[in-house]
Fold each of these.
Amino acid sequence: MNTHDFTAARRLLAGAASAALLLTAWPAQAQWLGQDYATYGVPMSNFIQLATIHNLNMIDAATPGDKKSAPASAPAPLRAEAPPAVQRNAQELAQRFPAAQRAPMAQAYQDSMEVYQKIEAKMGWSRNDVGGAIAAFVVGNYMAMRDTEVADEEFAAVARQMRNHPRLAGSFKQQSAASLRNLYEQSAMVGTFMALAQKSLQQTPQPTQQANLRAAARENLKLVLGADPERLRISARGAVLE
């Protein structure tokens, strides 16, 4: 990652003991990214339900430049107000992995949530910002799929898209507080996990695991975008489907 990367670059998380431990442990954890990861993908039940219903919204949200859909002024960030449910959401994400991998995967997702909250604070966002977490999901999977880096300003641009698109925001406001909490936490966990795994595999290349990670990232993006993820590009403009 370069010095502008939004993910767990040492610059962003200097002095954060939990994040340092997570990054140190990740090469060993990369063994979990075997064929099972590519096969099982990410069982994000709440996110999948919303994405399936609102695929067109996700496509629109990832296509900037539509003046008709741009609000006159930026709305207040939509926040997940329900009590945290990190352990339960991490266990849910890990549930459909093989039994022997569920406990370590659940812990990895919990650790990823801690890392994300430090990133969230570093970006200057309010805690529990749903748009930022969805952007983390999109950007983290994009990084893993393309084995590339994303700068802070690019990540921030995607988050603005997710916050500001009126139809996407409107669909989320119809969800219960508990559903928004699940969406926020699961999106943040998976996006951060994918970015951390990508970074780890850059530092310690493992071709099979890298291929499986890319495959999983591609499927995650295909699900939420409702379009070929190879069309997705992220830049200072935000996310664009070319």
Amino acid sequence: MAEARRKLSSLLDIDFRSLISFKDLNELVSLASKLQKDPTLTAEQLVKLKLIEEIPTFSVVFLENRKVMEHADKFFRTHKDNKAKVTSLKQEYREIKQVVTNLQSEVDYTTMAVQDIDDQIAQLEAHRAKVTKLIGKKKIDKDELIRNQKLVANLIPKVVHEVQLANTKKPEWELKKESGVRREAEILAKFAPLKEFSL
């Protein structure tokens, strides 16, 4: 009995989170059951020993509850990241669109310059070749930007959809998180008396 008292008291000196991680909860329950046969125990001590026997059952509930809360936290992090991503993609799209507009204006302007150069081809042939080369480069740049613009445009509906879908699930996860927090508090409060318990 003395050895059982000593061992159980040393185990109960840790908090509930650490206690449920004890590798052999069956041994903990066995010690509590054994000590209940001690005729010198008070009613309060017997009640707490009975409470110890409930630890394996509540440890499962506690760990499952913790997992739900971790999933809820992950959900909220992903949701926040996606909302930020939508804003960033929209800004990128607007910037690319502006660059494309500017490049198109430049292409239009330069094309008119080429027409003028064609009218004076004899004296401006060297200038015309240079400007034509510039047009080609700007068109390539414009095409590349248009491709990038389309890629960004295609991404926006997908991310918006993910955010909208997450918005519909947000209340459910908020309830799960709130329930998890409340349940954890209840479990911790239930086993709080064991912290000061000694035999």
Amino acid sequence: MEHVEHSIITEINSLGYPKDMYQDQHYGVDYFGEIICEGDEIFELDGETVLADNLEKFLVEFAGGKFTLAK
């Protein structure tokens, strides 16, 4: 039986690194350095861009907000 190597492994062996498969979809990074891809939901405020998933963390850190439960 012939040994078949995956194309990414072949590329790593010949070039030393794989090509970035998400390069065309990459939008940038958010306030916390997380990659933003095309189609991600983002929030923008005062020149800062934040992934929607990081919005609560951003509001606490950037705006000094506090999340609590109503009593």
